[in-house]
Amino acid sequence: MAGDEGRSERLMDDTEGTDDALLPLRVWLALFSSVKQIEGVVRRNLREDFASTLPRFDLLSQLYRIPDGLTMGELSNRLMVTNGNVTGLINRLLAEGLVERLVDAEDRRVQRVSLTRKGRRLFATMAPANQAWINGVMAGLGTDDLRDLHRLLTKLKSSAAHHGQDTDSPRE
Predict the structure, then answer these.
(1) DSSP conformation letters of 133-157
(2) Which of 29, 86, 132, 167 registers the highest number of CB atoms within 10 A of its CB?
(3) Please, what is the end-to-end C-alpha distance for the chain in angstroms?
(4) Is residue 79 part of a domain?
(5) How many CA within 13 A on the CB side of residue 71?
(6) Does a structural domain hold residue 67?
(7) CA-to-CA distance for 149 and 75, rounded, in angstroms?
């Protein structure tokens, strides 16, 4: 809701008389807002520069790292999406000649998906562009800032995991 969004922005930006009880919420809102802004930059650039989407990029990235390929279930887990989402995306990439699906040598009921040469070449051009976009977004932070932020985000991730957050479950 528009009113809630404005309230969230006020919580994030109001630093005068900061109530320490609201600080975790303010940090969460700032983090969430930053992620959405960065994701927007990446999505726009993927669309404009490669006529592609973030889900496609993420899937290609996972397959690029594992040359022997991954099962559909492994891809779903790594991408944190449902098998149905992965199946649709794989079918489109198959039609474009970017991936191939092969029967697993150890279990013929399982299919492994891997990048074709065309898929590897495409991702090899997309990855440096993505890195440049992220570098550009973070250009306002110095090396020490980035190290501190990375350290703190790693600590936050551990804290969230400790408090029962299931980060490995698929998104609907």
Answers:
(1) HHHHHTTTS-HHHHHHHHHHHHHHH
(2) 86
(3) 22
(4) yes
(5) 12
(6) yes
(7) 28
Q: How many domains does the chain have?
A: 1
Over the stretch 33-92, which tens digit does the pLDDT of each residue have? 999 999 999 999 999 999 999 999 999 999 999 988 999 889 999 999 888 889 999 999
Dihedral sign for Cα atoms in the order 164, 165, 169, 172: positive
Q: How far apart are CA 69 and CA 60, in angstroms?
A: 11
- Is the model's pLDDT at 1 over the cut of 60? no
Strand partners, 111: 103
Spatial separation of the C-alpha atoms in residues 150 and 156, rounded to whole Å: 10
Does this model's pTM top 0.90? My answer is no
> Each residue of 100-109: b (16+ CB within 10 Å) or e?
beeeeeeeee
Evaluate whether residue 85 is within a structural domain: yes
Residue 56 lies in a domain: yes
Domain enclosing residue 100, as ranges: 26-126
